[in-house]
Amino acid sequence: MKRLTPSRREILESCIGRGLLLAAVPMSSSSLFALWQQGEMKAQKPTSTDVLGPFFKKGAPNQSALRVTGDPGFPLRVTGKVLNTRGEKVPGARIDIWHADHKGLYDLEGFRYRSKLIIESAVDYSVDTIMPGHYDDRPAQHIHYMITAPGHRTLITQAYFATDPFFEGDPDKNFKKRGIASSRELVRPVTLYEQPEAPHASITFDIILEKA
Predict the structure, then answer these.
(1) Residues 26-37: what's their mean pLDDT?
(2) Distances 59 to 21, 48, 63, 109, 175 between C-alpha atoms, Å
(3) pLDDT (tens digit, 9 = 90+) per residue, 57-103?
(4) Which CA distances in Å does 150 have to 8, 90, 153?
């Protein structure tokens, strides 16, 4: 049976043949096709979405230090980048972050372990906090995110921890257990750092937004 839908290669070859895809410098058709493919491979997949949850609260302060000296719980640093699917920085991004304390409780009266980071022109963000605790309704440790930016779709998602006992040492197999994580990519590896005063953990959670 003849295939009715042309392949990506056939479409690009047609564009090259019709003069719809041109090279700025002399280049063979095969080289032009390879260069286009290389560019497409650099396109990044949007960060997977996840549920908002019931504990979002408006008005969180713009602060990167959510943990204060003496806080119970294992110290955690979260770092990442805010980009769009073309790998470009996203000016004017706002990142709401919130999570439970070490006992699995959310602060509904104030703004402990809550922030609304304002990323005007930078790419990187960083938050110092603690590892969230567990609670019955969502037994996996997690950090909530809601990201907005001009000209981009609002992203609601969550970050999880590969070391969480909930995943039983195998996130590849267990990330869907009890419908917890929407995507394996949201379960992040954890790095442990040893410091003279105290060890701390770290995860990297990059945010890739889609244009509206």
Answers:
(1) 79
(2) 48, 25, 12, 12, 32
(3) 999 999 999 999 889 999 999 999 999 998 889 999 999 999 999 99
(4) 31, 8, 8
| One-letter amino acid for residue 145 of the chain | Y
**Each residue of 151-161: pLDDT tens digit?**
999 999 999 99
According to CATH, where is 2.60.130.10 located in the chain?
75-209
CATH superfamily of 75-209: Aromatic compound dioxygenase (2.60.130.10)
Cα separation of 176 and 99, whole Å?
20
Amino acid at 121: S
pTM of the model: 0.81
Spatial CA neighbour of 143 closest among 202, 90, 191: 202
